User: Fold this.
Amino acid sequence: MRVEPYRIVPALPERLVGLREIAYNLLWSWDDELRQVFARLDRELWDRTNQNPVLLLGVIGQERLEALARDESFLSFCDRAVGRLRAYISEPTSWDHRFPDSPLIAYFSAEYGIAECLPIYSGGLGILSGHHLKSASDLGVPLVGVGLLYQQGYFRQYLSSDGWQQESYPVNDFYNMPVQIATDAQGAPLRVEVDLAGRTARIQVWRAQVGRVSLYLLDTNLPENPLDIQDVTDQLYGGDQETRIRQEIVLGIGGLRALRALGLEPVVYHMNEGHSAFLGLERVRMLMREHGLSFTEALEAARAGAVFTTHTPVPAGFDVFSPELVERYFAGYRNELGLSREGLLALGREEGAAGNAGFNMAALALRTAAFANAVSRLHGEVSRRILGPYFPGVPEHEVPIGHVTNGAHTRSCVSREMAGLFDRYLGPDWSRRPGQTETWAGVEAIPDEELWATHERRRERLVAFTRRCLVRQIEQRGASAAAVAQARGVLSTHALTIGFARRFATYKRADLIFRDVERLKKILLDPERPVQIVFAGKAHPADREGKEMLKAVVAMCQRDDLRQHAAFIEDYDLVVARHLIQGVDVWLNTPRRGMEASGTSGMKVVPNGGLNLSVLDGWWVEGHQRGMGWAIGKGEEYEDLAYQDAVESGALYDLLANDIVPLFYNRGADGLPRGWIERMKRSMKVLTPQFGTNRMLWEYAERYYEPAARCWVRLSADSWQQARQLAGFHARLRAGWAGVRVESVEVAGPGLHRVGEGLPLQATVRLGSIDPQCVAVEAYYGPLDSTREITVGRAVRLASDGLVGDGAHRFKGTVPCERSGAHGLSVRVRPEPPDAEEPNGGGLVTWWQA
Assistant:
């Protein structure tokens, strides 16, 4: 049967056409006044449509719209909302003032968590991407986003009667979502193509407007594509390795082609994780074709404007494809780049890797980006360790991967009630400058009574929401009337409430609090000082261990002796997250240290008055201060994981029983927990500006975006002359580096030295064909560990002292004696490119060998 498709759109009365303008700009997802316009249309229908304004306008009755078009009160409210949106879009921004000539930045991510009605996210990475775009919009950053528009997105979770996670994949209806088909200059739907192993994949480009920022989303579900290619953008993180490489080709290569087809020419490309790293190869290919550059020249130029952010704390977290799969999908493409099979594979491997070694997307991102960063200070240390092998000879602490600690978009996190409190005591423009410390000084002026009453209202809403969720969950499983009645009475609106919500990966240890159930029961079931816990989270469909942990947690919540004090909410999404972060008293986080890259969920509770209780991992290493929350342990790391669980669960119980519960229930005659409120205020005042995405965006601008733009401009000047020279420089170094050798090192007066003295030394170095002006010869020195290795060394440059005969050069200098103890030194030679600004360059180093 042939079907002729057509589309029906809402018939809005003329006075209400502004609703469409608001509906298609996701600013409403973080501006409560805009969101309230749709709630006033029909509050019940607004919630039933998953707070989707486009769908709401499509299903609301025409009679209701006509009535509202005659309602002067609603029309006035609607007009103000339209004016508010237009004023936001057009007003000058702080970015314009600070970086008036800032070029366009393209931000690539595999997922975006912006609003619950746009389900193209799975967890922290997607929420961070969404918050990145929202802050970019607020600040006025000239940025566009690129991602994939998944037909099914991430799975919906429901539990079987025994607590086992089940998955369903509802199909997204793009025509009833806040996205629109992007069009070309003639108004036709904009499409681009990529090659997938010799077959053409056609891609529809959609646009979601996120305030001032455009997000372009790619969709292969077109009838002219073969069925298996239609399915490429079916599921987020679904399918096998072949599906993943296809998705990443569409995202990286297709995304770049979409921007070009739109007439957009970004200068800086930001890869949020390695999923989009193929865009680096596409940039190289385009530079070769359009400007006549060689591969190495184009690579130097492409690297200059690229930033790579890794969120992964373990090597297994990176996408790695087999050589056969890479060859199948890139055989023709590498010919355009002028690369052999091994030449292409080398871009995704460690130096000297075996022929069957996989192709690592993080390695490709590092090789095609001059700038790289992790997402917290501790994660920076972890990333330098796990990615250090891609920088042979470079000491771990010098591996060129910095860090920008993640943040949370404050306006997206704060409850409506708390925002009203801020309007009164911080000033009505607090939301325009949430990253400034002085904005939050006014928290001290909020009366304790008002702050506590506001916080308690949000806890009441969380409890009511949890009860509704539990009733719906057990009704779907055919529960009895008695069980439904019992679910309606779980939890207390006045008890100390702990929240734990995140992905159920085993390293996050959701079950740690249940390690000693009898001890936990004494804490939870105290009739004078009750405590309750609300859990939520999903396990990856393929993670059986994570599912077993989830099942164990659900079983604990369903025990007869705990069910009034513990609850598990199914299908963790933005709606569940919002109720939790806005209503809990304490946010619990128990990962194994070093395994949580950043952990932004804990940041989101802060402006809502919640306090953090966490292992010193991710952002909490930087955020924890005395009097603002609690740390489980002191940052210890363990080899015996069972022993670690025993120690840290014991520390958790001690904190709850001896510190947290007594502080919460220590009430004065007025019924207020003054000590608790003092911690709330201190946490809100200090941590909110420090761990917001506004601060994060400024850091990216100053440390990565602006330097990357300068590098690009420098290398592209004079018909790419600087790029050609830099490529030639590196080629000469690589050709002659085998001849570089530190022949000898002589230290004046070895033995004992006093602090404050200088330690003179000279080194004899052979450079072969390499000009001495093209290298830096350095003394590398520092404290020795028990194996006589330099722990964290520092470098001091040695000055050239001329030739000493037979092609050898002498270099001299002085190493400072800065502190007592056992120290050591070595000498190294490394390239020093002319006018080099990017930190991730070179890749060559030679050390003094015994």
About this structure: The mean pLDDT is 94.
